[in-house]
Structure of D-3-phosphoglycerate dehydrogenase:
Amino acid sequence: MTKPKVLISDKMDPNAARIFEERGCDVDVITGKTPEELKSIIGEYDGLAIRSSTKVTAEILDAATNLKVIGRAGIGVDNVDIPAASSKGVVVMNTPFGNSITTAEHAIALMMALARQIPEANARTKAGEWPKSAFMGVEVTGKTLGLIGAGNIGAIVASRALGLKMKVVAYDPFLTPERAIEIGVEKVDLEQLLTRADFITLHTPLTDETRNILSRERLEKTKPGVRIVNCARGGLIDEAALKDMLESGHVAGAALDVFLEEPAKDSPLFGAPNFICTPHLGASTTEAQVNVALQVAEQMADYLVNGGVTNALNMPSLSAEEAPKLKPYMALAENLGSLVGQLAHGELPKISIETEGHAAELNQKPIVGAVLAGLMKRYSQSVNMVNAPFMAKERGIEVREIRNEREGTFQTLIRVTVATSQGNRSVAGTLFGNSDPRLVEIFGIGIEAELSGEMLYIVNQDVPGFIGRVGALMGEYDINIGTFHLGRRASGDEAIILLSVDQKIPQNVIDKACALDGVKVVRALSF
Ligand SMILES: NC(=O)C1=CN([C@@H]2O[C@H](COP(=O)(O)OP(=O)(O)OC[C@H]3O[C@@H](n4cnc5c(N)ncnc54)[C@H](O)[C@@H]3O)[C@@H](O)[C@H]2O)C=CC1
Ligand SMILES: O=C(O)C(=O)COP(=O)(O)O
């Protein structure tokens, strides 16, 4: 058997190459390639091990004809086009915990550096100025630290800040009250955080929801004299607004480890007062780099040599024997979890996963894991079937499994029910021909639909002519409809439309759909 070939394309601890070789892979370490150069060599490789520098775009993936796995030695995977990788059958893995302590420590270091203006004082002292009277710092003791994002890294930052005798408030829509107590923070909404925090630190992934979370408007609401630290991702802060507010003095200091454009070689922020930065060093300690290098190589080699899947972001983990039977069920389960995750509002303290008929005879763990992975996608990019149940537990979500081996209307069925503040909401699906996942019920209304790609969900009053109006609206904006599914409680009662479209639906089209007569709810969904 030929050995799998792995390319390490970013600077990585040498332990990674050693592990690959010990586990029977050939490995090349070639860093610093341009996208064109990477494209020209990627076709040779079965595995690609990266950090944040290599951008794995759809174009690179098109050229990666042998690629089976991408391993991210770190946490954030916003430099990988995961949908493109999935559509090519390439597993994307990360190492969700290996550098969290290190990154949290960097955030604390930057906060202290800001409080005492250490970088500038250091530079001017070394220049022979002895500028003792030019600097007057602030204490952090007794000050309020505002955490935006209280996941793994945020929680570690909180523990360190509490040790520094700070008060910690946290904004994280998915932080449960129990978890907030456990990590010693006060859960607040974003507005409160902005007005109360003396220091703000960001620890969310970069997603459509978090992009520009510290916008100009929000920065203007912060407490005068606030100091801001970002060790998460560049796109979270409006950099131009931050520069203006440093210049006006409203923001007393800002420390960025990450930038919208990296490498950041001539950011306008560089000239702003009280601005300090590091070149994406959050994860750069010996300890963290050994952790993530060992872990990524172990995981990738396991997959390439034995087919084992750990910490995959786009594929459920399962054993070779169970795989063929369970695979379509897991696709169905993940879509049902994702659907309730996208439709239900607010916190979801309880979820029940019910299997009926054939589905009840199978190993429930992967099915439950897949439902939770689908649901948790809205909370974290690092979610997969293995860690989703732990994350659900950590967030205090009560998970119930119910098996009902007798067949009902369907030979096989998975039903997912979540408790929301408006009561229980449930969706159900089956397999057609033992292989094709289909949604068959949504919030008590029968419907038959394939959940895939971009979709539009509308709840409306069942009246003649409504379907035509929706079709006309899509036509008006040149949005091609792939499939159109309907369901209703009874004639003239509440009805549901679920349509698949060939492109992401713009917000103005959603707004127009909301304004149609008789519409109650409109949501764009992505699968
Ligand atoms: N500077 C660096 O070198 C490093 C940066 N990172 C960045 O740090 C990020 C966080 O890492 P972890 O804590 O391990 O991830 P995590 O997934 O454990 O935590 C992220 C938290 O953000 C919360 N969140 C999601 N959407 C939110 C929203 N709209 N508003 C507020 N909170 C929201 C989630 O509920 C979750 O609790 C990573 O995604 C990565 O981008 C990670 C490691 C090193
Ligand atoms: O793990 C992460 O998300 C990071 O941002 C670390 O990035 P790096 O591996 O140092 O390029």
In short: The first strand starts at residue 5 and ends at 8. The mean pLDDT is 94.
